[in-house]
Amino acid sequence: MSSEAAENAPATHVEVTEAAAAKALTLMEGEGMDVDVGGLRLFVQQGGCAGLSYGMRFDDEPEDDDEITEHHGLRVFVDSASLKYIGGSKLDYEDGLQAEGFHVENPNVVSECGCGESFRT
């Protein structure tokens, strides 16, 4: 593989900020989950006015085809089908006067709906 091909290859993981990891770990512990085995599942699903939308949930354990990464103590599970849409993304947590919640910064997005809930790659 040439170095140019390696540079243009799609990213194979999702980054998670320290703020997002801390919030997710707090929520998981509040639900009595084992943070050493379970994790945050980030996925893409059909829906929304732009065609695709993000989904998140806590899972007790990963699935067989998951990409498993750890960020600031948080295990993150992404299935292989979703990874092609969100590889290279960054998951952040915002806590402010205007908005509070998790936000995905996805470099693969070519357009988003007006509310930012769905996207197209």
From TrEMBL:
GO function term, MF aspect, one: 2 iron, 2 sulfur cluster binding
PROSITE patterns per record: HESB
Domain Core: start-end pairs: 14-117
Protein name per Swiss-Prot or TrEMBL: Iron-sulfur cluster assembly protein
Bilayer-crossing regions: none
SUPFAM superfamilies, A to Z: HesB-like domain
One GO biological process term: iron-sulfur cluster assembly
Record gene name: iscA
